[in-house]
Amino acid sequence: MSKSILDTPIEFLKGVGPRKSEMLKKDFRIFTFADFISFYPFRYVDRSKFYRIDEVKSDAAYVQVIGQITSFTKVGKGRVKRLVATFADPSGAIELVWFKGVDWISTNLKRNKDYILFGKPTIFNRKINIVHPDLDLVEPGNKATTTKLQAIYSSTEKLSASGLNSKGIWNVQKALLPRIIDEIYETLSDEVISSLKLISRKEAIKNIHFPENIEMLNRAEFRLKFEELFFVQLQMIRLKITRVRKLKGFKFPTVGNSFNKFYKEQLPFELTNAQKKVIKEIRTDLAQGMHMNRLLQGDVGSGKTIVAVLIMLLAIDNGFQAALMAPTEILANQHNVAIKEMLEELGLKVGLLTGSVKKAQRKILHEQLESGEINVLIGTHALIEDKVVFKNLGLVVIDEQHRFGVAQRAKLWKKNENGIPHILVMTATPIPRTLAMTFYGDLDVSVIDELPPGRKPIKTIHRYDSSRLNIFGFMKTEIEKGRQIYMVYPLIKESEKMDYKDLMDGYESISRAFPIPEYQISIVHGQMKAADKDFEMNRFIKGETQILVGTTVIEVGINVPNASVMIIESAERFGLPQLHQLRGRVGRGADQSYCIMITGIAVGDDGKLRMKTMVNSNDGFEIAEVDLKLRGPGDLMGTQQSGIMDFKIADLGRDGQIVQVARDKANDILKDDPNLAKPENGMMAIEYNVIAKGRKGWSRIS
Ligand code: ADP
Ligand code: MG
């Protein structure tokens, strides 16, 4: 490929040079002219609006004022020297300050001439001033005022100090654009451009830096966001196509005795429509001999377990074994008890494998797995160890871990030498559609979007510390009714010591308020030995204790239907998904349940919004959407996957609709031309390969 001027290293750009280029590389990962031109503004200021000085408030964003310099003076000496000027219009005056270029600026400033001033006001010594404003003399032929939408770029303190503040970057963009404009090639096909009424890439890049008007700016943003998201979708959908085509899956064509008998005779309730829909989706997949890699999302309590059981029965009906993996031992035990009861009536054998299964027992288990005597193995991570060999594993269900890693997945894939077991990942952490389409765009996604009937919505309440005595009173009346209560304290790695102290202090004061022998309290936290933890937890599960005090170890999956009150201490320190998970521990029985979130008086805006969201909504997906807007996608998915989220302009929190448009378009195109081999898709194929090379290694399914 011939070299383009766009590939020129950034240090050769006029106005940048070696020192600034180092900073650009380090802080913004800008290495070439191409990188620089796709360093987009983060917002725009309307320069058609002029302020009067008496309207300039300290907290105003950028302002533009017409006025005159009435006086200026140099203050200080040497390095602390600064230039201070008074700038006035008929409504008042403000102070302008320069710390750099003092001599040069002072020789050029003109008194009593009209200037257009542009800058960001700040307060210093209780006075409003503007540091390093842009000043343009109003003269006949001066075109400074014709830029209506002024692009604002992010910069760093160091970069600004060396001249590349927002305006400096703008200046360099302005000089660069005409040099490279003819090299900006189109990346989308004519069909995509015309069907979505997009502007060309060239036009978009020009307008993103120098908008002709608001409409062109909007179209430029749409075009560039679309493009970015579209190529991610192409990549994701192609991964999926490749997986489906390359990986033969075991065929489960038969709906046999086990499934039917269970469904007709043993199912303790009517399935919800959402459960039926999901089971049908999965069955259709499995009947076709494609490999299934499916994410099943369903809010807490939506009944994912029974779906897993039915699919495992399908595997058994077709001559395979199934495994169910849980994130903790307690959860594995719970699943084991419940599922064993269901399946043993069908004459099936269920095994349990966790870290605490003794060696002798383990040996028997291994043998029974290899001989095929065990139909379903339930366990923790212990079950992916190499030693665990199955006769014919056909399906693995992974509960409550949507972040299950690639390496672990790869291990599972090796569990059957005749093929790759189907994988069903279940999660109660609702993932907003936008994220699911992007992160899990290569997976099949099913959603249970309905709760079983008859559930009473949990009453969620926000209270301040000062109401603790009232809350204790409320707890007592609930305990009198025979209910049980969770009480959760935060435990954050960075403040672990303090958090343990809080937990212990809390435990002490609860013990005083709820004395033995009338009350029994369990305590569970991460510093306890596993056996002690299980012992305490089991006392609560069996109903021997009325209160369970603990850190978030109780967060995931645990099911105690008689527990109807969840109290969350320092609730402002929890993220929304965690709060929602915790709340999901109650509301599992017939009684009215409560979630009480306690915070200090001083809660920040984000914290308040989180509390409000929880109080107003029981819908996990709605909560996840708010969370996405508050925290952005990086936090949600963990840093491990944040690389894929390095979007230059798209914002998954806000651009959900564009993601959908991009996905639909990518689907259409690949349906017609799966390898982008048609000439009309040539430009997209080139760009696709460029991106794929740059992003090597981010495909999560290897
Ligand atoms: P989760 O999706 O959080 O894993 P579970 O599978 O633990 O939820 O189900 C929560 C509770 O709802 C269980 O007690 C289960 O028996 C019950 N359940 C599941 N499906 C239904 C249904 N269709 N009708 C009534 N109860 C149901
Ligand atoms: Mg569950």
What is the fold's blueprint, element by element?
Layout: H1 17-28, H2 33-37, E1 43-46, E2 63-75, E3 82-89, E4 92-98, H3 102-108, E5 114-119, E6 121-124, E7 127-131, E8 134-137, E9 149-152, H4 157-161, H5 166-180, H6 190-195, H7 201-209, H8 214-246, H9 257-266, H10 273-287, E10 293-298, H11 304-317, E11 321-325, H12 329-344, E12 350-353, H13 359-371, E13 376-379, E14 393-399, H14 406-413, E15 422-427, H15 433-439, E16 444-448, E17 459-464, H16 468-480, E18 484-488, H17 496-513, E19 521-524, H18 530-541, E20 547-550, E21 563-568, H19 576-583, E22 594-599, H20 605-616, H21 620-637, H22 656-672, H23 682-694
Parallel strand pairs: 4-7, 10-15, 10-16, 11-13, 11-14, 12-13, 14-15, 17-22, 18-20, 18-21, 19-20, 21-22
Antiparallel strand pairs: 1-9, 2-3, 2-5, 3-4, 5-8, 6-7
The chain binds adenosine-5'-diphosphate and magnesium ion.
Magnesium ion binds at residues 304-305, 399, 557.
